[in-house]
């Protein structure tokens, strides 16, 4: 059966990195028998400019009907003055919510060749392989009430609300425990239960799910401030980390620096039916948009996750991962992972190199 893919390049470096990921998909189709067809649609600021809305109905329908969605990134200074209801980032949140993509998997794995590219000492990051499991459709990014209101005395009040219901916590906890069973058998749940009632509930529910359904998995808890510190002090202590939407957003950006660059971290956002959206964890990087400096590997590795989690093509997923390893072993580097004085290549050349490695 032909896999139906929706490709949403978005803004900034989005189109550049998605172009390279599509080269990889095309190579898998022509050389390795991947039966797929993709359709492209605008999202984010680009869509707003075209149609006055960052998530046009046609784009949402395309995503709904697809077996998997590949997204680049959205947002940029050009759209920062817009009302929140039509900001590019709303499109991303709406897609996640509409498709019920509550489980966001963000693996942070250090490639041996890049241990020296990390901001930390090579011996601290050697062998790091962390899976951040981030709750993606709840928490403070979605809670009501929200907004900015005018107070009678003329001051303005900004409000966002951190809400979690027990079933939302249960389902993300199950995802994390399940993944841990296939890895080291350890989960660390990150919260701020010493201050926030909503995350006190988080801790209670995660503990309940663990005790009742996953007694074989070792569960620990950590406050988010300590976790942020431990991630750079001794990241090797972590295997699966499960946490709320905002904490996971922040900690995964931090974890990317163990690997050398945010341009290396892919992600999968999944619902219970196995359909998913795949995107790099980084944003639209307006500071390097149009310069050819963006690292496309996070997006290419997101294609790998798509093959594994939504398309049931794990052999092809292995091939993509091996091709990325090969280009890194061969010393190819975009500027974000090049050592000082080391020759760097551009976005398209990196994509071409992965394609060449795939072809063998
Ligand atoms: N998933 C998404 O679509 C996301 C969108 N955003 C949006 O992106 C825009 C920029 O946000 P920032 O906070 O600057 O975060 P960002 O992740 O876009 O960039 C942070 C830094 O990392 C660098 N970087 C990011 N991706 C890279 C890549 N593939 N290769 C090399 N370097 C890379 C950038 O050049 C920049 O210096 C904002 O409008 C923000 O709202 C931010 C995060 C996620
Ligand atoms: C619009 C933001 C919530 C996107 C982001 O930073 C992320 O998902 O990592
Ligand atoms: Mg983020």
UniProtKB/TrEMBL annotation:
Residues annotated to bind NAD(+): 76-89, 283-295
Record-annotated site: Important for catalysis: 141, 192
Pathway the protein acts in: Amino-acid biosynthesis; L-leucine biosynthesis; L-leucine from 3-methyl-2-oxobutanoate: step 3/4
Cofactor annotation comment: Binds 1 Mg(2+) or Mn(2+) ion per subunit.
Family annotation (SUPFAM superfamilies): Isocitrate/Isopropylmalate dehydrogenase-like
Residues where Mg(2+) binds: 225, 249, 253
PROSITE patterns: IDH_IMDH
Annotated Isopropylmalate dehydrogenase-like domain residues: 4-354
Subcellular location: Cytoplasm
NAD listed as a keyword: yes
EC number(s) reported in the record: 1.1.1.85
Pfam families reported in the protein's UniProt record: Iso_dh
Alphabetical list of SMART domains matching this protein: Iso_dh
Catalytically driven reaction(s): (2R,3S)-3-isopropylmalate + NAD(+) = 4-methyl-2-oxopentanoate + CO2 + NADH
Keywords: Amino-acid biosynthesis, Branched-chain amino acid biosynthesis, Cytoplasm, Leucine biosynthesis, Magnesium, Manganese, Metal-binding, NAD, Oxidoreductase
Binding site for substrate: 96, 106, 134, 225
Listed cofactors: Mg(2+); Mn(2+)
Function: Catalyzes the oxidation of 3-carboxy-2-hydroxy-4-methylpentanoate (3-isopropylmalate) to 3-carboxy-4-methyl-2-oxopentanoate. The product decarboxylates to 4-methyl-2 oxopentanoate.
Description of how the protein assembles with itself and partners: Homodimer.
Family label: Belongs to the isocitrate and isopropylmalate dehydrogenases family. LeuB type 1 subfamily.
NCBIfam families in the cross-refs: leuB
Protein name: 3-isopropylmalate dehydrogenase
